[in-house]
Write a structure and sequence with these properties.
The protein has nine helices and ten strands. The chain is of the alpha+beta class. Helix 1 packs across helix 5 and helix 2 crosses helix 8. About 12% of the residues have low confidence.
Length: 284
């Protein structure tokens, strides 16, 4: 977030405008829409400089610079100052950027003390055509882990994320998997994916175009919850990836549910065409 805050401060100085809120940008990415962040167009800045600022402003944490030093070098023209005077000025410049960036970041994010909107949607029953809105609550859950698996309440998860497979390919992969001495692996259900979110302290809801405001609230809440992010990352889930579940929607048999840990949202996808990621489970 410090890198993002620095990028936001420099962007504001360069464009005289505050960048869009990160929640609206994340939602646009979630829906495969254009990023509402307008590029820096001024000819006063080099392409290297513009690209560096925009990389620092990437909504996905893993796609930003990993350190201020890396960001500083990428900006160009201020690397390796030759004398103490320039070095001192550079230090002061970044102190101001940092302080301004943190102020901007705090201004843009919601107050963590505000009331949290908790909306959970249960999996549809076999013959149902509607979603059950009864909240699902999980208590007394905890994780255990070793080199190969993560265990949550009797369900073992493979640690490796398998990328870019259709639902049929994912289902077949897990059913044919022989790993850690077992051959009864399968795709997780949607509830099992949601249980990981809840057990890490996150919130989840069905992503719907009719509920944009609620969806934004859930995304913003999860993005601001650093303990939640640390939990699912420590348990080997990739923030930006959508994970297949074995749960299909009865009214649309060619659609399976997918869940994104970064946003906490889940939705329905064409399981015969689209490719997403997976982890296999076994147990209860």
């Amino acid at each position: 977030t410090d890198i993002y805050a620095l990028g936001a401060t420099i962007y504001t100085m360069a464009t005289y405008s505050v960048p869009p809120e990160s929640t609206s940008r994340s939602l646009a990415k979630l829906k495969n829409l254009a990023d509402p962040l307008k590029p820096i167009k001024s000819s006063d800045f080099s392409l290297e400089f513009k690209n560096a600022v925009h990389k620092a402003l990437n909504v996905m944490e893993e796609d930003r610079y990993r350190s201020v030093e890396e960001f500083r070098k990428a900006l160009g023209g201020i690397e390796d100052p030759k004398d103490k005077k320039n070095n001192s000025l550079l230090f002061i410049f970044f102190i101001f950027l940092f302080l301004g960036g943190m102020s901007l970041f705090n201004f843009l994010k919601e107050d963590k003390d505000n009331e949290v909107i908790e909306t959970n949607v249960s999996v549809p029953e076999e013959n149902s055509t509607e979603l059950d809105t009864t909240p699902i609550i999980y208590d007394d859950t905890n994780f255990s882990t070793n080199d190969n698996i993560v265990v949550l309440d009797g369900v073992s998860w493979t640690k490796e994320t398998i990328k870019n497979k259709t639902w049929n390919e994912s289902d077949k992969y897990c059913k044919n998997l022989s790993f850690d001495g077992y051959s009864d692996w399968r795709l997780p259900t949607l509830d099992e994916l949601r249980k990981v979110v809840n057990s890490c302290g996150g919130s989840n809801r069905l992503s719907s175009r009719d509920d944009d405001e609620d969806t934004i609230n859930i995304i913003h809440e999860n993005m601001s919850n650093f303990n939640y992010k640390s939990c699912y990352k420590n348990n080997a889930f990739i923030a930006s990836d959508w994970y297949w579940s074995s749960t299909t929607f009865p009214a649309h048999p060619n659609n399976g549910f997918i869940l994104n840990f970064h946003s906490g949202t889940f939705t329905v996808e064409d399981d015969t065409k689209e490719k997403h990621d997976l982890r296999c489970v076994r147990g209860e």
